Amino acid sequence: MSPPPGNPLAPGVDGAQEFRVLSGSQSSGAEAPEIHVEPVLLGDRALRVLEKGFLHLDRLVTTALPAAFNPFQQTGAIAITSLSVATVTGIVLLLWYKPSVHLAYTSVTAMSEAPWTAGLMRSLHRYSSDACMFFTLVHACRVLFERRVGGARWLAWVTGMALIGVLWFTGWTGYWLVWDERAQQVAVGSARLLDVLPIFIDPMGRSFLTDASVNSLLFFVVFFVHMLVPLAMALFLWLHIARLARARYLTRGAMTGWVLASLVLMSLVLPADSAEPARMAVLPQSFSMDWWYLMPLVLTDRLGGGALWAVLLTTGALGFSAPWWMVRGQPRPAQVVVSRCNACMKCFQDCPYEAISMVPRSDGTTRHALQAKIDPAKCVGCGICAGSCDTAGIGLDWFGMVEQRKRMDDWVAQAVDANSAPHVAFVCAESAAANLRIDRASGQCAELPGYRVLEIPCAGWVHPLLVERALRRGALGVVIQSCGPGECRYREGAEWTRLRLAGAREPALRADKIEPERVLLLELDRTRTRNLVAAANAFRARGSAPGMWRLPARLGGLAAAGLAALCIGVTWLISDLVYAAPGLQGSELVVTFKHPGVVSEDCRVRTPEELADLPAHMRRAEVCDRMRADVRLQVSVDGEPRVRASFRPKGIWHDGNSIAVERVPVAPGEHRVRVAIGDSVAPDAWQFVTEQTLRFEPGARRVLVFDRLSGFSWH
To answer: How buried is residue 709: exposed, middle or buried, by Cβ count under 10 Å (0-12/13-18/19+)?
Structure first.
């Protein structure tokens, strides 16, 4: 909410930014330590520019709506809420869906005949899945642009990447189950990728040459995988937020209502559709598809299996290893001064990352049974714990509370001695104050005349006693400037500051000791430096700050509806764009077989020396090696030889079937096709021959399947 005149404790409005502190120099002398932003990523400057896009979007939204209704500040919770809807509707759809390659398409298309039951559930299932991917990707981009990747946050990044992968795979297999043209391309692309691996004796691609060859068992396995893989998401999601205190899994009341209402409206107005049924002999030319999940078709339709694996492994390696190759430097964790710790547990309760635990005392003192302990693997160096501790027993060693308190005392005393009592400003170094020109030695700032300004890691670092101390020693007023509402880079620093100043959370600002109207809290993101300057200077001149401009409340509902429409539009548009598959030039003949060659024996007589080296019971004079012959293939079109090849038997010992899938481009029209197969060692013996005149249609293929039981069959 914007601060009305006369209420200087009310926070300002805008987005937020995050930072962490690199291992920096300890404060010394009269000069304050420089606040280094961490992590410093490769392309840090470009990421900051991209981050400003989100901050400007936050500014636009929060001029019309409270921060609690800004979907771009709670993308993770909206993604999980959408995933919950997709899970529930997916279970309900089992009432109508038939997991059979022969019945799947008809069962799915029949759902549209019941738009208020099965049709609604199917549309909700699709659009909630799309919304989940949309907000997941927005969340990932925002985290990257805000440079929240390395240090203690590596686990969240790695598990987040895994979540995106599992979510995409679930949607990919889900589209397979519709068994339309989209599913056909998904199946063929998956086979192209998997056939590179030495795990299938019979290449999976052979199952998708004809409608009759599609394996019903394989289809059911895909259905089973689609149902079980989401269980892995629960594990990764738990790990993703394992280091967050008071993590929010789902959106809260009003936002949940908006999410559900938007999905239902979208499902009723834009019901999910299906493409044409899958026909293996016909290659789809173009169709609309859900790019949230099917975008990899652009690659699987155009690259071979080896190239696909190269792209997949390279992309995955770069993404998962980003916390190590992108980040330069690590934050210095907070430290505990055990002799000052009185086991009050405030730091333990306030830490946003569960990096603080209470353990038995280590200094032999019996006055307190416990002490605080920092887990360096979880600490991000925010300093919020310093703002919680009355005794300065915990905090950042490079930015110690005692040293900075003395520095502020000296600044105020010098100004008072010069008959120029100052205002004091504690400003978050990664928010609106990032662009101020501050002299760290004197605390003076060109943009804020009459102020002594101290850059701080996070607004949560400011202890209320520090505010009271500055006022008692002669400061005329105190400004605390934090990140924007709902977007503190350290999650809860701005919120704890707001509650402490309002007296609603310990340690609290004591209203009976100082005048609360002499304290101003501003919540402004990095893009609002001018707002900070204007508000701080007005506060110094008049004792109050101007309120932020807000859209009239009566128009808030329209703004919320417009924002929901925007999210619906983006989700639907990307889920229904036309895709142009690489068309087949002319037509194609495909010849495939799985056939064993004839077994032959190669016998020879052992020499006397060989027999002498063998045990008596193994001295056979003649030894024979059994082997299978290669299976040969010859294809001619209109009397012109097009294929002449041989195929070795599969298996470790080359004693299995020979498998072939040969593709021959053919011009549309009628052609005389002759196919001959030989399975003996004689190079000119062709045991199986077929010859027919066939008509080839543009964009389609004719498939010849051979096996030794049923012979040749044309499709």
So the answer is: exposed
Q: Which amino acid is at 701?
A: R
Which backbone phi and psi does 287 adopt, to 5 degrees?
-165, 155
**How far apart are the C-alpha atoms of 629 and 683, rounded to whole Å?**
10
CB 671 within 8 A of CB 696: yes
| Equal CATH topology for 330-550 and 587-714 | no
Contact between 274 and 109 under an 8 Å Cβ cutoff? The reply is yes
Per-residue pLDDT, 363: 85
Distance CA 236, CA 136 (A): 14
Residues 6+ apart with CB under 8 A from 393: 336, 337, 338, 339, 340, 341, 342, 372
Classify residue 180 by its DSSP letter: B
Distance between CA atoms of residues 207 and 213, nearest Å: 5
Look up the CATH number of domain 72-248+270-323.
1.20.810.10
The Cα–Cα gap between 290 and 658 comes to 39
* Token representation of residue 345: 């547990």
> Where would I find the beta strands (DSSP E) of 380-514?
394-395, 423-428, 451-456, 477-482
Q: What percentage of the chain carries pLDDT values higher than 90?
A: 68
Are residues 301 and 582 in contact, defined by beta-carbon separation less than 8 angstroms? yes
Task: Give the residue from 524, 400, 496 showing the smallest Cα distance to 456.
Answer: 400
For residue range 488-517, list pLDDT tens digits in order. Answer: 889 999 999 999 999 999 999 999 989 989
- CA distances 456 to 48, 264, 343, 604, Å, are 20, 46, 25, 88
**Inter-axis angle of helices 556-574 and 118-145, nearest 10:** 100
- What is the H or E stretch that residue 635 is in? strand 631-637
Mean pLDDT in residue range 149-159:
92
* pTM summary value: 0.88
- Residue 478's nearest CA partner among 512, 516, 428 is 516
Task: Yes or no: say if 587 and 699 are a contact pair by the CB < 8 Å rule.
Answer: yes
* Short-list 699, 661, 602, CA closest to 195: 661
Give domain 587-714's CATH architecture.
Answer: Sandwich (2.60)
389 vs 330: CA distance, rounded Å:
24
Helices assigned H by DSSP within 473-619: 493-501, 529-542, 556-574, 608-613
Query: Whole-angstrom Cα distance, residue 51 to residue 46?
Result: 9
At 582, the pLDDT band (50, 70, 90 cuts) reads confident
pLDDT given at position 708: 86
* Residue 510 backbone phi and psi in degrees, to 5: -90, 105
**Token digits of residue 270:** 């834009």
- Confirm if 14 and 5 have CB atoms less than 8 A apart: no
Q: Which residues of 197-210 are buried (b: 16+ CB within 10 A; e: fewer)?
A: eeeeeebbbbbbbb
Q: CB-based burial of residue 29 (10 Å sphere; 0-12 exposed, 13-18 middle, 19+ buried)?
A: exposed
Location of structure tokens 């730091």: 347
**Yes or no: domain 330-550 corresponds to CATH 3.30.70.20:** yes
For the chain, the maximum distance between any two Cα atoms, rounded to a whole number of angstroms, is 118
Where along the chain do its domains lie? Answer: 72-248+270-323, 330-550, 587-714
Tokens at 66, concatenated: 């409270």
What average pLDDT does the segment 520-536 reach? Answer: 92
Counting runs of H as helices and runs of E as strands, what totals does the chain give? 20, 22
pLDDT tens per residue, range 368-419:
999 999 999 999 999 999 999 999 999 999 999 999 999 999 999 999 999 9
Q: How many other CB atoms are found less than 10 A from the CB of residue 369?
A: 10
CA 542 to chain centroid, in Å, comes to: 47
* Closest listed residue to residue 237, CA positions, set 80, 91, 127, 82: 80
